[in-house]
Design brief:
The complex is a heterodimer of chains A (457) and B (74). Chain A is an alpha+beta fold. Chain A starts with 5 loop residues before the first strand and ends in a 14-residue tail after the last helix. The longest helix of chain A is centred in the middle third of the chain and has 21 residues. In chain A, strands 9, 10, 11, 12, 13, 15 and 16 form a 7-stranded mixed beta sheet that branches. In chain A, strands 1-6-7-8-3-14 form a 6-stranded mixed beta sheet, with helices on one face. In chain A, strands 2-5-4 form a 3-stranded antiparallel beta sheet, with no helix packed on it. Chain A has 2 domains: 165 residues, 2-Layer Sandwich (Chloramphenicol Acetyltransferase); 242 residues, Chloramphenicol Acetyltransferase, CATH 3.30.559.10. In chain A, 36% of the residues lie in helices and 21% in strands. In chain B, helix 1 packs across helix 2. The longest helix of chain B has 14 residues. The chains are: A alpha+beta (457), B mainly alpha (74). The interface between A and B is medium-sized, with 26 and 24 residues.
Chain lengths: 457, 74
């Protein structure tokens, strides 16, 4: 691959057009997902000028003042202090045509991605929470890349921000944004109950592994508390992650929908687990850990909520059950588990526990297990954002760099198909990818009629 | 099984968020046809989770119709 010549790199801070002075406390849902950086890359055949981008961003930030703020830790809480500090806009010119670009290669993606904010530096009060990098290509095309902090917002919140940016550029009125960040209930007594439940869960379900896990759990809990009290530095940064993407087209998605209906999302997770159970990583394990990302937007938060509304949970399933259970039965089991995890009683325990047991402790506990995290973002509208020059012609969500267990994004392709993007911190899951490719294509093999509705999963 | 009198208002509240307002809702209605997608169905069942002790073993053939949701409440 030839080196791409980069010129004219400029960095500027874009401040809200009108100064705002507000403070928002990060909720327990924001904090439970961590300050993990999240990247998105959209490619367009053409786009606005730098001046137009800067002006539109400045106007839109008035509607989204929290995104222009800075996070600062105060005691045990973290707040977004908004004084019109702004976001980072990077622009550059690349000596390449759009047709020669491959967003999914690490070489190209890393050049196009916005500069990342280290999760450990987010709370120092100086880091822009949104960074945008726009690359102007040789043939007039543009690559629009964002890097956000997950605790600031999730994909839906970012989608609303980008949708408003498109509206501003197109001269349309902006959509309203719900800025108030409500805490979900938690209580100390439930924290104790949550910890006890976690402990008994490990002992009962993991068996011999539990003692080791429990010991690591205790250590990670102590470390988490010490970090909260500023007694210890942040965790060591993780390595960059390789990627493999398996795609199915629209007709295959329609075929899957015809077979599995409205629980298709859980069927996809079940297929992923069946493939993972056959991998060498899982082969000697009695139980697998399934870490789904659950969305409580529109349930506990409004649709136009600005903050993060997704959370992680964990389901431990015997490997034999995953292999032997018919696909539909396993899908329904995952469905039931996820529903139970999202009821009020479970969330009360969850958020009580996460007061002391953060994401780094959680992943520290499970990273030696056969665990896989699945984030189904197929309903996100990011890939359809129009900045006044048409829809994107390419779209890519690079895997988060901070992951410590295999991680999968399931997202909708531009042609209404689905992509299963596998990332692995150890880069050794080719057998899993091969098996998933086989299973997903077998399951989505065409039945009689396949042209059904184009709703997301 | 949850009666349609109790279930229909819950379904309507969720459908209204999607700007769908079916004239009638019956047990035999196909959920996708009256305006549901996967997420909105999940939100309805999540809502029911807080109000009832759900029996997921009743969900033997997936979620296709209004009655499939009603069956989750013993």
């Amino acid at each position: 691959m030839n080196a791409i010549h980069t010129t004219g790199i400029q960095r500027q801070v874009i401040r809200p057009a009108t100064e705002v002075a507000q403070t928002f406390k990060l909720t327990n849902v924001d904090r439970a997902i961590s300050h993990m950086p999240v990247h998105n890359i959209l490619a367009y055949r053409s786009g606005p000028s730098v001046e137009q981008w800067a002006s539109a961003l400045s106007s839109v930030l008035v509607q989204h003042p929290d995104y222009a703020g800075r996070i600062r830790r105060r005691g045990l809480s973290e707040r977004i202090i908004c004084r019109g500090q702004g976001i980072l806009l990077e622009t550059q010119h690349l000596d390449i045509d759009l047709g020669d670009l491959d967003l999914q290669t690490p070489e190209h993606a890393s050049m196009l991605c916005a500069t990342e904010c280290q999760a450990s530096e987010v709370t120092n009060g100086d880091e822009p929470l949104i960074r945008i990098r726009i690359s102007f290509l040789r043939n007039g095309a543009q690559i629009f890349a964002t890097c956000t902090i997950h605790s600031l917002t999730d994909g839906s919140g970012l989608g609303l921000f980008l949708s408003n940016l498109g509206r501003q550029l197109g001269g349309q009125p902006l959509l309203p944004v719900e800025l108030v960040r409500p805490e979900l209930p938690s209580a100390l007594k439930d924290a104790r109950r949550g910890l006890a439940k976690q402990r008994s869960f490990l002992l009962e379900k993991i068996g011999p592994l539990a003692l080791d896990s429990l010991s690591r759990f205790k250590n990670s809990l102590i470390q988490a508390v010490r970090r909260r009290l500023h007694l210890e530095g942040p965790a060591t940064p993780f390595t960059t992650v390789p990627v493999r993407i398996i795609e199915i087209d629209h007709s295959q998605v329609a075929s899957l929908r015809q077979k599995h209906g409205l629980v298709l999302g859980h069927t996809l997770s079940a297929i992923v687990l069946k493939a993972f159970a056959q991998s060498h990583r899982a082969r000697n394990k009695k139980r697998l850990l399934y870490v789904p990302v659950l969305d409580v937007r529109n349930r506990y938060f409004q649709e136009n909520y600005s903050g993060n509304a997704v959370l992680m949970t964990v389901v431990i399933i015997p490997r034999d059950e995953i292999i032997e259970a018919p696909l539909q039965k396993l899908s329904l089991r995952l469905f039931a588990d996820n529903m139970k995890a999202m009821n009020k009683a479970s969330l009360l325990e969850y958020f009580s526990m996460t007061q002391f047991f953060g994401p780094s402790s959680f992943f520290g506990l499970i990273k030696q297990e056969a665990a896989i995290m699945i984030d189904n973002v197929s309903e996100l509208s990011l890939a359809r954002v129009d900045f006044g020059h048409g829809a994107p012609v390419m779209f890519f969500m690079p895997p988060p760099r901070d992951i410590v267990i295999p991680f999968m994004y399931i997202y909708q392709t531009l042609s209404q198909g689905l992509a299963f993007q596998i990332a692995d911190p150890n880069g050794d899951l080719q057998d899993f990818a091969d098996e998933l490719d086989r299973l997903i294509k077998a399951e989505s093999a065409h039945s009689q009629s396949t042209e059904t509705e184009k709703v997301a999963i | 099984m949850l009666s349609i009198d109790i279930l229909a208002p819950i379904l309507r509240t969720e459908l209204a968020k999607r700007n769908c307002h079916p004239a009638t809702i019956s047990m035999d209605d196909d959920l996708a046809n009256i305006g549901f997608d996967s997420s909105s169905v999940l939100r309805v069942i999540s809502e029911l989770e807080d109000q009832f002790e759900l029996d997921y073993s009743a969900m033997t053939n997936g979620i296709w119709k209004v009655s499939d949701i009603a069956k989750l409440v013993p």
